[in-house]
Write a structure and sequence with these properties.
Layout: H1 2-11, E1 33-35, H2 46-50, E2 56-59, E3 62-66, H3 75-79, E4 85-87, E5 102-103, H4 116-122, E6 126-132, H5 138-144, E7 158-160, E8 169-173, H6 178-190, E9 196-200, H7 202-206, E10 228-230, H8 237-247, H9 255-264
Parallel strand pairs: 6-7, 6-8, 8-9, 9-10
Antiparallel strand pairs: 1-4, 2-3, 3-5
Amino acid sequence: MIKEVLARIQQGHRTSRYPLEAPNLPDRFRGAPALDPSRCSDTCNQCVEACPTDALRVEGTRIALDMGRCLFCTECMTACEAGAVTLTKEYRLAARHREDLVVTQGYEPRRKALDEKTRRLFGRSLKLRQVSAGGCNACEADVNVLGTLVFDLGRFGIQMVASPRHADGILVTGPVTENMSLALRKTYDAVPSPKIVIAVGACAISGGPYIDHGEVKNGVDSMLPVDLYVPGCPPHPFTILDGLLGLLDRLGESASSRQARVDAV
């Protein structure tokens, strides 16, 4: 027991101070795209041809990238010799509306909270049932890691539960395969109303690399109304956490209020 106590003292406080402080992201982190249409020519289409999910569109000198389809694979960056496409360190990628995931130039975080009535219901305590609708386990792993002491999702009053009947909504990963579509629908129906739906990862948003395959539904919103889109392949845990807190309008609290909440936990 003494060894355990000494080890705990040596390790110190391991829980991230986010959102009081910006997260410490790895050097290889791939965040929001930044597009520079001035570098595009009328004849060049190399970035579009290189994209495996048709996330890029170029019309003349106008370029747009759909983060809902993007795998953040950098194939477009490699193909674009002019440097019109780059990836930044911006991790705040979640959006309430599907169209807000389309970037045309520099990216600005588009975070919109739920309406006031819904926030009063879920703002202090949000229970989610996670559904892997045919995912590869990458997004699932980054959702699961939110329960570790580094992120400690529970300190914000957000928890994953085992039964949809105990949940306030569902968090969906995967492209929604034909084999999982009925299970997803039944899980959604089992959640008491009012309820929310969160799509995490490129697969859950658009189908990802499996888009337009005959055995997938091309994302959650083909079946259910989605309240929050979290792009990425997979999205970083801080991207998911930022989206959840933004949905509940918990990022707009004063620093003193957030510190008091952290100290009380």
